[in-house]
Write a structure and sequence with these properties.
- By secondary structure, this protein is α+β, with helices and mostly antiparallel strands.
- It has two domains: 46 residues, no CATH class; 99 residues, no CATH class.
- Strands 1-2-3 form a three-stranded antiparallel beta sheet.
């Protein structure tokens, strides 16, 4: 009669739960799986640029683009036109020792906005392609492009 009472109360030795060896094996298997998953994240993080560096690079490119667009409205620079002059490379950018910045300004035709048509300034076609590129060893390079019309 004692065995039937033990079974009703759930104290039978066959219903004792997990053994220590089963728990250890489970932990080892889960640890191996976790290492595999985390190694994927680690390699992904190493290959991505730091968001702060990316933001600084974009802001430096935007600053130079704003200067060029501001010069467009300056009568000494041709008033209303972007004259494709070399705005010069900055190696390094003032105040940002790790960054270099370069600018390319070319005259283009409406049908080929990436191809220099070698016109003399101001652009007779009415279209100017402006590219500002900021580079950093950790970031790589960030480019900002725009096409401006003289109208």
């Amino acid at each position: 009669m004692r065995k039937s009472e033990d079974r009703r109360q759930g104290t039978d030795k066959r219903e004792g739960g997990f053994s220590l060896i089963e728990i250890i094996i489970t932990l080892v298997v889960l640890s191996i799986a976790a290492v595999g998953v985390l190694s994927v994240f680690t390699s992904g993080i190493k290959g991505s640029a730091d968001p702060l560096l990316m933001n600084q690079g974009l802001q430096l490119a935007q600053e130079k683009m704003d200067i060029i667009m501001g010069d467009r409205m300056n009568s000494a620079r041709g008033f209303g036109y972007i004259i494709p002059v070399n705005y010069g490379a900055e190696n390094p950018v003032t105040g940002f020792a790790n960054y270099n910045r370069g600018t390319t300004i070319i005259c283009v035709n409406a049908g080929a906005l990436n191809t220099d048509n070698t016109q003399a300034p101001p652009c007779a076609s009415g279209y100017t392609h402006v590219t500002v590129t900021v580079t950093d060893a950790a970031l790589g390079s960030v480019s900002m492009d725009t096409v401006v019309t003289n109208y």
